[in-house]
Structures are given as structure tokens and as C-alpha cells.
């Protein structure tokens, strides 16, 4: 396993572990020019996930998305070099709950930023497929970046067998069934996060949270419709609706 202080091919120095992605260990690193970087190290047997992320995330350039800028190896393991997304994972940043009551403006800014990033991703024909708190890094003011693209791929991509993507608590019904996924599936995950912010809890499978008197409740219900054909599939529309209902400037 890599250790702090280890030099990586290309002049990167690993500094400390940052956390784990879906299939990787993420290190904070510094390049030879002194720039901070994130290095995602994949086990050798999961090299296909590194290949997918490199193929789909390289070239994406948006303020609200972490960028992949190169590839290397660490002790024979495939690794991706990316820009460093600062902040805490979403649920850690919003420790006081419900977040939409205790830190409303920052929380809604976080969701608006993630929707900005998703809109860019969707416009490029890709879906993230793993919207969850661990993949959203949030700064103190609520600014956010979406990270971890090793499950991402083309919208409505098909496989030889039904393939389930995502994390159960934030997974759309069609993702749980292993169906091809489109933008509406990413927006289901945003809806779950919005509901968590409004209610301070995640529902058990099949449970509907009790309605509350908040103008954003209607958006939460719309984004989490079980029928994908009745669910919004436009991230920019969802962003504008979020800010409109909250009375915040677009």
C-alpha cells in the first residue's frame, strides 16, 4: 500500500489519505510545481473502473465537477490524478439537521451547485449514477463540487445483463432494477438529498416522509416520483425551480 511521503511517477508526492471512493483509495498529493492534487488509487483487479473514469471524465471542465487531468501507477496499481476538491462530505458539513432549517442558504447553494455540475454532465451525454453525500464535497459557505465518476457513463447505456448502479439509500427505482439510466435518475438522488435537508432523515425503503409546510416540499416530491416518466429530467430546470421556490436569486 502507498505511504505518506511516497513519490509517484510524474513527480507527485503522496501526503495523506483523504478517503475512499466507490472503488478506490484517494490521497492528497502535491505535484512538482507545488499544486495540490487528488490521486485515486484503484486495486489492480478494478482497473476497469479506472479506465471508465478516465474515458468519461477526462476533458470535462466545469467549476462544480472534480477534473481528471492524468493517469499514473502507484506500486503497480492504476491511479488517476485529479484536481483537489476542498471541503467536507455533505452529511458532515451539515451536521445540524434538518439542514434546510439550520443552514438553509448554504444547503440550497450546495444543491444548486451540484445541479449546475449535473447539467453540464448531462449536456455532454453522461450521467453520474452515484449521487450521494460522500460524492459531494462542501466548503463552509456551501460551495460544492461533485466527485467520483467511476460509475459514470453514457446516458441510457445498456449492458449484456441488468446492471445496478448507485447506493441503495439514494438509488432511483430504475437503478435498483438494473435498467439503463438517464438524467432523471441522477435527479432522483438530488430529490432524496433535498428531502433529507427538509426532513432531517432518510426514509426507509418504500416509506414516504410526512408532508411539511415548506415551499420546497413540492420539488422534493416531484424529483422522487417512482415513475421515471413523470420525473423531471432537466437539471437546469430543477436548479431554477429550487431557487425560485426558496426565494433566492437565480
UniProtKB/TrEMBL annotation:
Key words, A-Z: ATP-binding, Kinase, Nucleotide-binding, Transferase
GO molecular function terms noted in the UniProt entry: protein serine/threonine kinase activity
Lineage top rank: taxon: Bacteria
Residues involved in ATP binding: 40
EC number(s) given by UniProt: 2.7.11.1
InterPro entries in alphabetical order: Kinase-like_dom_sf, Prot_kinase_dom, Protein_kinase_ATP_BS, Ser/Thr_kinase_AS
Domain Protein kinase residue range list: 12-250
Keyword Nucleotide-binding: yes
Family annotation (SUPFAM superfamilies): Protein kinase-like (PK-like)
Enzyme kind, highest EC tier: transferase
Listed Gene3D superfamilies: Transferase(Phosphotransferase) domain 1
Keyword Transferase: yes
UniProt cross-references to Pfam families, sorted A to Z: Pkinase
SMART domains: S_TKc
Full protein name: Serine/threonine-protein kinase
Organism of derivation: Deinococcus navajonensis
Amino acid at each position: 500500500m502507498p505511504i505518506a511521503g511516497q513519490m509517484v511517477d510524474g513527480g507527485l508526492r503522496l501526503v495523506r489519505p483523504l478517503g475512499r471512493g466507490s472503488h478506490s483509495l484517494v490521497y492528497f498529493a502535491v505535484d512538482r510545481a507545488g499544486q495540490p492534487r487528488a490521486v485515486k488509487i484503484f486495486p489492480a483487479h478494478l482497473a476497469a473502473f479506472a479506465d471508465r473514469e478516465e474515458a468519461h471524465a477526462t476533458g470535462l471542465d466545469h467549476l462544480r465537477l472534480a477534473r481528471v487531468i492524468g493517469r499514473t501507477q502507484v506500486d503497480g496499481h492504476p491511479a488517476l490524478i485529479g484536481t483537489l476538491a476542498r471541503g467536507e462530505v455533505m452529511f458532515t458539513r451539515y451536521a445540524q439537521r434538518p439542514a434546510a432549517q439550520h443552514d438553509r442558504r448554504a444547503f440550497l447553494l450546495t444543491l444548486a451547485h451540484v445541479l449546475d455540475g449535473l447539467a453540464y454532465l448531462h449536456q455532454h451525454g453522461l450521467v453520474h449514477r452515484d449521487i450521494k453525500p460522500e460524492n459531494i464535497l462542501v466548503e463552509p459557505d456551501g460551495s460544492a463540487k461533485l466527485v467520483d465518476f467511476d460509475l459514470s457513463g453514457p446516458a441510457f447505456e445498456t449492458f449484456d445483463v441488468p446492471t445496478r448502479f448507485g447506493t441503495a439509500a439514494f438509488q432511483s427505482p430504475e437503478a435498483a432494477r438494473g435498467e439503463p439510466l438517464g438524467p432523471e435518475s441522477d435527479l432522483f438522488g438530488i430529490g432524496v438529498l433535498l428531502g433529507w435537508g427538509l426532513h432531517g432523515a432518510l426514509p426507509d425503503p418504500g416509506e414516504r416522509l410526512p408532508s411539511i409546510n415548506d415551499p420546497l416540499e413540492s420539488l422534493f416530491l416531484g424529483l422522487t416520483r417512482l415513475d421515471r416518466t413523470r420525473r423531471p429530467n432537466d437539471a437546469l430546470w430543477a436548479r431554477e425551480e429550487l431557487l425560485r421556490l426558496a426565494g433566492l436569486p437565480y
